Amino acid sequence: MSERLLFDGTSLLVTVLLLWGASIHAQNGVPAAGRPITVEDGIETNLIETHDEARDLTRLHPAWFSPDGKWFVVSLKKGNVKRNTNESTLLLYKTAEALHAPKPDILITMSSSTEREGIHGVRWINNSALAFLGEKPGEVPQIYTLDVKTKQLEQLTNETRRITAFDITPDGNETIHKIELPFEKRLLDPSLSTGAVTITAQHSLFLILRGEYSPFLVDTQLLVQKRNRPPLALQMVNDPPVGGTLLLSPDGKHALVLQALSGHELKKVWADYDFGQENDYLHGFFAKSAETGRTPFLQYQLVDTETGSLSPLLDSLFFLHGSPPFAVWKSDGQSVLVRDQYLPLDVVDPAEKEGRIRNRYDVEVNVRNKEYRKVSTKAFPDQATIDLPIDVTLEQDVNTPARLSVVDRKTQQRATLLDPNPQFSALSFGAAETVRWKVTEGCDVLGGLYLPPDYVPGKKYPLVIQTHGYSSQSFSMDGKFDWNSGYAARALAAKGIAVLQTYRFAGEKDCDTGRIAADRTLGATTTQVWKRFETLVYEGAIDSLDKRGLIDREKVGIMGFSRTVCYASYALTHSKHHFAAALLIDGIDCGYFQYIAFGANPDNEQVNGGGPPFGDTLAEWMKEAPGFNLDKVKTPVRLEAHGGRDAGTAMEQWEWFKGLSRLAKPVEYILLPEAAHMIAQPRERMISQQGAVDWFCFWLKDQEDSDPAKSEQYARWHELRTLQGKAPPRPED
């Protein structure tokens, strides 16, 4: 089907005025004067999408150039709090006019009423047409093409389930895509036909309670579709956590699919690979392969779109070592190039085998016979058909909001192309600075310190430590780019609370991830080392900022999300420092209940010393596991769990909730049944991020929001304060 895009003239004009040009604040930094920043301001910030390009793998690219280089598009996304939607907008520029402050041509805006983006997966299919996944409120994503000259939009698919990834041939006549499988149609255990299910070690209590009885479930279906024909179902696969690489060959005869591997799919020979600092953790999956479900390992599958068959591209696996997967077809469609690939170990030469055990390689694989060879990065084809006269770059740092700049490659003339957030000129931004502190002897780390807009040197402020990394090169409203699950750095700073985003290593040779991972004075396993090291990071930060006279060390809060829930939990139960409030969001707590309920994930053993919570190693668990040490918690704790398919359920935080409740300690539990792990839907972001702001203001500053709608919230919290033995008078109305 096709439809002509129509725009309301008034809304289009307002949008153009909002987006066009570069405002003064983007050139000179963020002004100090203005109104306080709110969580809503963060949700409605325009973010500039970026993507990988084979011609330059050193950075992410904010512009998609047409094959002839005459046009490029920019994709923006933002939340709309009032409508509870996520909006995406495509802007079109002429390359020849980019240095002369052109007004962008708004091609299309689409909105999603879920956590997903309105537009995703943008790519040019020829010099005048784009393809992408587009979504409308109340509908699932579909594959669309858009003519950039006529603005003619064509919907190529009509799926009833969400399309999670796709690719399309250059002529637009053939697509391959994945659809999300409904729970009720996943593979079931054959024993169900007898009226009984045999529970095995592979089963997860979480899945059983949800009514899914097969230990080996798949979550996506592959389909191939030719224009104006029904789709052809291929095979069901497991989608990887990175979203799913899916590459269709130029001739449409083959496709490359990245899929997640389950424990029973791991081959014994792969256990010979050396995974570096992740060695202990990853080898645990081989030791218990029969008991593990989804693993962190991935594998490229080769699809024959004519026969529908799937087979491994190589007899090896893939693991994300901090960088996203990248592969690209050669123009003839006969071979594919992939980066950072472990090679098969079926070689006779001992030196070659040893190299393959320890290293990853860029390789070219012939899809007809599966023969492969090592290549250099230079072998990857240049996706640009011509030398582009300009370069479009994303300019930002921790204090400077992102804007697009354009540079003439010959003359080096530079101009600002787009300031996506001119509304920032009305806000009051406090300064952010990179701070450094000592963790252990010879090991310093860096973090981002967000100060209140009215910061006064010498005044001691409450502090919230936000975990999960830091980049001084990125501007963020939340503290870490696009991490919206409870992160609220600038909204907290606006309330007079200093926020520390942690951390990255300072860069010295004697202190890096490899050195710390190998330091067995901190733990018996790599993951135990990291858990204990994180607590030293938090303690060192508190001591350093207190020495500066910047914080009140009796009013320090901490939040953990995902993996760092384990680290924050350990700090709450084992640190020598006191935390006045804590927030633990949708994560791994390294405890006994998760170990039992979600299957014997080897990570839970490694993080607690290397053995199971039984027999001789039970004593180590009793000492190490946060859940066995809840009696030591002196901190009010807010727990939050998300119900997204890959993020867990209420059981994930259950040990902490029931344990602290039975000990009569202040604890609150919030469940967002429909939320994804990385929250994106505006309403859910308001609950999570505003909840974090309210929680820390209450416990660190004795402040309450005057909104009458929150009266029940504060009534609960005053009851928690009574449990703690601290009941200051309620604020005057």
List keywords for this structure.
Rossmann fold; disordered N terminus; disordered C terminus; eight-stranded mixed beta sheet; five-stranded antiparallel beta sheet; 733 residues; alpha+beta
Please characterize this protein's 3D structure.
The protein is an alpha+beta fold and 733 residues long. The protein has a domain at 429-723: Alpha/Beta hydrolase fold, catalytic domain (Rossmann fold, 3-Layer(aba) Sandwich). The chain is 20% helix and 30% strand. The protein contains 16 helices and 37 strands. Strands 30-31-33-32-34-35-36-37 form an eight-stranded mixed beta sheet, with helices on both faces. Strands 1-13-12-11-10 form a five-stranded antiparallel beta sheet, with no helix packed on it. Strands 3, 6, 7, 8 and 9 form a five-stranded antiparallel beta sheet that branches. Strand 18 (246-248) and strand 19 (254-262) form a beta hairpin. Helix 9 crosses helix 10. The radius of gyration is 26 Å and the shape is globular. It starts with a strand and ends in a 10-residue tail after the last helix. The model is unreliable at 1-31 and 727-733 (pLDDT under 50).
Radius of gyration: 26 Å
* N/C terminus separation: 58 Å
Please identify the structural class as seen in this structure: alpha+beta
- The spatial strand order of the largest sheet comes to 30-31-33-32-34-35-36-37
| CATH T-level fold name of the domain at 429-723 | Rossmann fold
CATH class of the domain at 429-723: Alpha Beta
Large-scale geometry: globular
Helix proportion: 10-25%
Q: Which strand-content bin applies to the residues? A: 25-35%
Query: What is the CATH superfamily of the domain at 429-723?
Result: Alpha/Beta hydrolase fold, catalytic domain
Q: How many DSSP H or I helices? A: 16
* Name of the CATH architecture of the domain at 429-723: 3-Layer(aba) Sandwich
Low-confidence stretches: 1-31, 727-733
Q: Main β-sheet, in a few words?
A: 8 strands, mixed
* Tally of DSSP β-strands: 37
The average pLDDT value, as a whole number, equals 86
